[in-house]
Request: fold
Amino acid sequence: MRVLIAGSAGQLGRALQASAPPGMTVIAPLETAFDITDADVVAAAVAAARPDQIINAAAYTAVDKAESDEAAARHINVNAVGLLATAARTVGAGFTHVSTDFVFDGTAHYPYSPEAAPNPLGAYGRTKLDGEATAAEFHPRPLIVRTAWVYAAQGKNFVATMLRLMHEHDEVRVVADQIGTPTHAASLARALWVLINAGEHGIWHWTDAGVASWYDFAVAVQHEALALGLLTRRATIVPIRTKDYPTPARRPAFGVLDKTATWALTGPARHWRDELRDCLTEIHRG
Reply:
């Protein structure tokens, strides 16, 4: 199978390349050579690559910035999705699109199923939800996988931010009343390959196992980093409320996704603490 990855330089794109199953020919053009917002570039690149599958691992993820520039978020999270889905359909390729728990409003008290009614709170969630609809509009059988709180050993993410703040400051304040599931990009990549190999389509959910607040996540980052020697001193981590840390974008208070159907196919995910330890070990090894 020939697989073209959009967003190959991102944390998920790199994880997909690192975990590609035997027999996969991965085509991973850099953003400078593969502008997914340019219809002519996308059509030409896909025609030249002749992929059997296109994975869209690219996204506009600046949640707060999207509130003041929704057009920029829409350009990548919606318009580019349509171009990629159209190109995939044209060459007879499958199309996989990665979405987010931000399509939900976070008012539930139980994990959101793939069939749950979306209700995004802000511009980022709206554009990601519209991206899902666009994938389904322009491709006959898209695979749409929602995930949450993705991090990796490289790139800008919560783990990297916490390591930096804990190194630089004696005290770190972290929101404790938003609940979700940290998800290692490597874990998500492995799940995507299973779903693609199985020929699945429709909407699926994937995160690592377990739940946490951002505060819990930060505490775990420090605990594991100290054990590995990534941090040499302990910072005080102070739990705060969302209203104590106002941001332009509203975030779901509860973003836990129901993975029952996915895990029936892939097998259960590992707990997020185990995946976090693997990620920090990778950072430690350089």
User: Anything to note?
Assistant: The chain has ten helices and twelve strands. The radius of gyration is 19 Å. The longest strand covers residues 94-100.
